[in-house]
Amino acid sequence: MIRINEITDKVASYIKDPDLDLIQRAYVFSAQAHDGVVRRSGEPYISHPMNVAYLLADMQLDEATVAAGLLHDTVEDTDTTVDEIEELFGSDVADIVDGVTKISRMDFESKAVQQAENIRKLILAMAEDIRVLMVKLADRLHNMRTLEYMKPVKQRLIAQETQDIYAPLANRLGLHRVKTELEDLCLRYLRPDVYAQLSEAVHEHRAAGEPYIDKVIGLITDMLKKNKIKGRVFGRTKHLHSIQVKMEQQGLTFDEIYDLIAFRVIVGSLKDCYAVLGLIHAAWRPVPGRFKDYISIPKANMYQSLHTTVMGPDGERIEIQIRTEEMHRIAEYGVAAHWQYKEVGKGAKKGKTAGRRDAERYTWLKQIMDWQRELSDPREFMSSLRLEMFQDEVYVFTPNGDIKELPDGATPVDFAYSIHSEVGDKCAGAKVNGRIVPLQYRLQNGDSVEIITDKNRVPSRDWLKFVKTAKARTRIKHYTRTVEKERAISLAKEMLEKEGRRVGINMQKAIKDGELIKLAGEFNCGSVDELLTQIGFSRFTPRKVVKRLYAVLHGETLDERKLKEKAAVATEPEEEQQPSAPSPVEIGKKPKADGLQISGVDNVLVRFASCCNPLPGEPIIGYITRGRGVTVHRIDCPNVGHFEDERLIQVSWEGVEEKPYPAKVKIKCLNKPGMLGRICSMLADLDVNIDSGEFESKVDGTTLLNFTVEVKDLDQLYSALAEVKKLKAVKEAIRVS
């Protein structure tokens, strides 16, 4: 376990005359507050804040941040208050602790809303003081390192949130070390089959390639010495998540990844960076299209480096990154590498001043602050945040020569909204490099873009199909929702009147008399208009609302009415019975959503999406389809990103019935006699049924087996794949979407 002297020694190594007493007092207070509490691992709880504080010290953060790391859980998990923290440790520490503290004591309609509000609070707090996010990232990193002690379902939920939010935030702050470790840990729990196989393959490749790595390092080092350039060279294996992403995006197997090893050359000056690039290109042939100059145009997180891929010794493709020591420090530690707090006097209000400077440096943070104010639905805020975080960059120019940074795949509409919201709203066309292009044109690095506006133009919902930035999507949705709200209210009234006639309710009179006001609160709507809007957007069915209104007006439910009608018919003399007219309302049986809990919706048909085949235990989300009920998708299903946010609904597994669920798997094995039979027999022994399959023989002597299997849950699937992988002839056994 980390000891307090290790933390204070680390702080003393980079701060002159540090306030170590503040850190010591924070440690004593935290130890007393968490006394007697243990983690799931069996360790004393204090081990967690100690590790968080050490991670912060390792990033060379100031004393207040390290102290806040020691205290970050005291307000949430003990009786300690923020006021008490401020009184004992100062407002600087208290503000950071308050920013990190979750809103766990508030009531929310669902876990999704609670998570969204927590993230929203974190974003607001970090806009004032970026140190809040630094503590939260250190907290999440240590929690991910010890995630093995949690239940499997909890592991996947936490890993999914980390992959969606915290790893991208670390990337945006330039915290490369934190980002890569978080991504690899997420892969371990979200795709354990892929993680295990990649770990083994990378280990074997690294062991076999050590002589080659040493050879390349030696050649580049000699190159530097001959040209009297001071520098150091080292090689590293790419982290597992980046390898997995490349394999999936390009449809490659591990054996087809040629640039697993990246070499870094760290030199003393900017001039030397370009000199080394010239020497490397002179020695080895560069791969076309694989050179990137992030020194001239840095990334949004301040990352600077030259990237080139060359055909190195023995014809092997290798990636080389060239940067200065300062660039390397920023690449590894991001904002922490040039911490503004060190420049502020001891007596100053450190956090606020530096926080504003950081917010100005990170324009993306200001953009998030702008559009989060326009989003009242916290789940929509989360959706936009994910969209904003997971983007590579493309750099384009305004007609005046200013550079605009946009996500890869951005269009002229995204560019227009980046100029100003009014320019985006009135965008009628665009010129790229002097030529008229469609609005859905994908902008390329170096494009010069000019927007053509029309005062009579309004945003189109069709733009949502191709825009990439959160700002554009938010503005377009805001406009279309305002227009569509009126249509939705009109449609809802129409549907309610039709449904009301079936049960003898005059809906126009009921609305006029204010009867729907009583229902608005029951359906968690602030007004009748909001209730009507939700009906128009298919959040609630007209039948559900009318059934509830009937009960309010008549003091009995429609089910009770139907029972009375049946009883009345049954008591009539047989000779007097006439064929009864159909009841004004046909009360259907409630469709059963086996093992699912659906937020805010009853009596709805549920089906599972065939595009991603969700399994019990996976994070899922529902989509309200027109006429087909709710379709359940995995939350990371690529199709979810294209759905209308208004029709997404919270869904969770609950009391799952043991029945077969389909899943697609891919098995790569040597083409040997009897292998297919052995694999099929093994799956059968593991109670995994093969529903269908396809086979493809490769020229390298392997065979790809693509099966659709039936399993009861995610754990059974991954356990079966792990067993299959143990066969010597099997090279790969993974689940595919």
UniProtKB/TrEMBL annotation:
Q: Which GO terms describe its biological process?
A: guanosine tetraphosphate metabolic process; nucleobase-containing small molecule interconversion; response to starvation
> What ranges does the record give for the region Disordered, renumbered to this chain?
564-589
Q: Which InterPro entries does this entry report, sorted A to Z? A: ACT-like_dom_sf, ACT_dom, Beta-grasp_dom_sf, HD/PDEase_dom, HD_domain, NT_sf, RelA/Spo_fam, RelA/SpoT_AH_RIS
User: TGS domain: from which residue to which, for each copy?
Assistant: 392-453
Tell me what organism the protein belongs to. Pseudodesulfovibrio mercurii
Entries under NCBIfam families matching the protein? spoT_relA (TIGR00691)
Q: What residues does the HD domain cover?
A: 45-144
Family indicated by similarity: Belongs to the relA/spoT family.
A GO MF term: GTP diphosphokinase activity
- Protein role: In eubacteria ppGpp (guanosine 3'-diphosphate 5'-diphosphate) is a mediator of the stringent response that coordinates a variety of cellular activities in response to changes in nutritional abundance.
UniProt GO cellular component terms: plasma membrane
Q: Per its record, how is this protein called by name?
A: (P)ppGpp synthetase I, SpoT/RelA
Name all ACT domain ranges: 664-737
User: According to the entry, what is the taxonomic lineage of the organism?
Assistant: Bacteria, Pseudomonadati, Thermodesulfobacteriota, Desulfovibrionia, Desulfovibrionales
